[in-house]
Amino acid sequence: MPTLPPGPLLLARGIPTVVVPPLCLVVLRRLINRLFDVDLLPPAASQWQKALILLLTIPLVATLRIWNAIFRDWRDARANGAVLPPTKPTLIGGLDLLKEAIANAKNSYPGIAVLTQQMGPIVNLRLLFENRILITEPEYIKAILATQFSSFEKGEHQRGYLTDMLGSGVFLADGELWKFHRAMTRPFFKRERVSDFALFDRYSLVAIDAIKQRLRSGFPVDFQDIITRFAMDASGEFLFGYDARTLDAGLPYPHNALKTTATDGKIALNADHKKSLEFAEALNRAQVATMQRGPLGPAWPLFEFWSNKILREMGTITEFLDPILQRAIGGRDGSAARNSAAAKENLEKMVARNVVKDREVQEGETLVEHLLHYTQDQKILRDEILNIGLAGRDTTSSLLTFVIYMLTAHPHALAKLRAEVLEVVGPNAAPTHEMIREMKYMRAVLNETLRLYPPVPLNMRSTTEPVVLPPVKPGEKPFYIPANTRVPFATIAMHRRPDLWGPDALQWDPERFIDQRLHKYLTPNPFIFLPFSAGPRICLGQQFAYHETSVFLVRFLQAFSGVSLDMAAQPPESYPPAEWKDPEKDPLGWKRGERLSVKYHLTLYINGGLWVRMQEAEQE
Ligand code: HEM
To answer: What are the transmembrane regions (predicted)?
Structure first.
């Protein structure tokens, strides 16, 4: 059945809001007229004036509903001995704040967190008359993720704008459905499976070889691009047994180079490579579009009035994934749900039938093969592998991109890390699990980067019921959050708070995860560091990520002894906007030190890529 475009659909849904108030007035007027012979509208008024009065009932009813909700929340907070979080004063319905949030989503990383410095670690940003309780307080984030887990969910708010991309997969699921997803995928992330060092090693060597070839031809490389390909190829093989071979396709040249050749001349782009690259690009565009929907809340269809931007990209994504799935499904009955709603319904039926058995993953089995034991529905399978594939690609590539970005500015740290690699692993050997465990500085470099540049900088839940957050400081009152409220929490802002991490919180210094600062700040308060989230929904791929990134860095530092930014190769959009240097526009001092433009969609990245040159290490 054809569906309406997003804008008309939203307007169609809003018809009752517009029609009911004037209709009620018309009915009431007739009734009162009949019963008491009194006209509710001034008899002397013209038809136009009467029509205007009828129309005015629409904003009047909307205003009464808003005030009623505000009063009800205030009364319920009082009844619970609590107060409402402070509200950021805004212009009509928070339109000024919305403008700022949209600009932030376009131009910078979560700058909106600045507000929490001015107003405290919990603040109500009322956007379009809707509460959004922004949190950067570890105790409250702990409540959301762990101690009051059942009072929070991903919720319809997030599904409203993310389902087009993430469908019925694990990221957006709640309740029994989420438990089902988690039980289905967890066996796949057992320790021995995520320790496939040979696989990480193989892809690291391919990536490093590609980097060397390009550097030897005199050009810099876009490290972010290469590492995203590395993460896609490695996680593709690990999860789906499919090597997308994006690393083999020609690397991009810097914008200032003469583009005489489309590839390195090593391997010509064939149809499969092209599809892989188109898939990767469609994923990026879909994420950017998804991010832009975030601040708009339920009003996003007004900005994609005639055409759903994400569904457009999903065509390319589906075209790439479906043949892989069809191959895996083979002769089985692989029908597909029509859309996400039907897929969710099918999943719910499976949950009701309790089909999850704690199944052991067999030797050599891929995630798709494992999932096929639960369902052959192609839409469900596609959503699941897209969710986990995205998690596997963009987070680890974000982490490694920011590690290299930091190493370009901290040659001492690079020398120290390299010395550790050479001492523990040697100049040529492949790293083992034990060696990686031994490398304390490596783990500190990764953690310090995850602290300052968490790949998932911002997250969100909705309350399933009214929530009371106990006071953090003595003498404070608890905070009350009504049911069905969006609660965004900014991990990045928490990770950068000087009161939690010390006065040097904004400096990248891996020693902080080794010296006395570790015992002073993190050990007594572990919830101040949450790059992988926490509680029942903690990241399933945490160990996978540490292993994959460590193996890559070992190989990288065996191959190269130095790395530097090539600013001439950086495209114009990658330069930080001029306003980042203005202390008034950057009161927290987050952006002044940036040499490149840091942005985020679902994950953190560098706008325009990270163009670098490396010195090849002398053969030892
Ligand atoms: C540096 C790398 C990574 C970081 C920083 C990271 C971070 C996170 C975070 C913050 C969440 C919570 C999301 C939420 O609550 O909405 C999460 C969930 C998840 N991550 Fe990761 N992740 C990383 C790598 C990976 C990898 C490599 C995989 C798989 C191959 C993976 C699979 C998942 C899955 C399946 C979930 C959903 C868990 C659930 O909802 O129950 N992650 N990750």
So the answer is: 12-32, 52-70
- Positive or negative: CA dihedral 354, 358, 359, 364: positive
Distance 5 CA to ligand 1 centre (A): 32
DSSP type of residue 159: H
**Atom 39, ligand 1: residue with shortest CA distance:** 537
Query: Could you report the per-residue pLDDT of 117-139, keeping only the tens digit for each?
Result: 677 889 998 887 889 999 999 99
- Cβ(324)–Cβ(242) below 8 Å: yes
Phi, psi for 376 (deg, rounded to 5):
-115, 10
Q: At 373, is the secondary structure helix, strand, or coil?
A: coil
With left for phi above 0 and alpha for psi between -120 and 50, is residue 16 left, alpha or beta? alpha
Please give all residues whose beta carbon lies within 6 A of any atom in ligand 1, as ranges.
170-171, 182, 235, 388, 391-392, 395-396, 399, 455-456, 459, 531-533, 537, 539-541, 544-545
Residue having the nearest C-alpha atom to atom 19 of ligand 1: 539
Residues 242 and 269: beta-carbon distance below 8 Å? no
Q: What is the pLDDT of residues 254-310, one digit of tens each?
A: 887 765 444 444 444 556 667 777 888 898 899 888 888 887 878 889 889 999 999
Cβ burial of 356 (10 Å; 0-12, 13-18, 19+) is middle
Of the residues 395, 451, 604, which should be mutated to test ligand 1's pocket, given the most ligand atoms within 8 Å of the CB? 395
In the predicted structure, residue 171 carries a pLDDT above the cut 80:
yes
Look up residue 18 and give its two tokens.
């517009």
Closest of 208, 605, 197 to residue 395, by C-alpha: 605
Short-list 66, 64, 59, CA closest to 22 = 59
- Give 480-535 pLDDT, tens digit per residue: 999 999 999 999 999 999 999 999 999 999 999 999 999 999 999 999 999 999 99
Q: At what angle do helices 223-240 and 542-559 cross, to 10 degrees?
A: 130
Determine the atom of ligand 1 nearest the C-alpha atom of 459.
Answer: 16
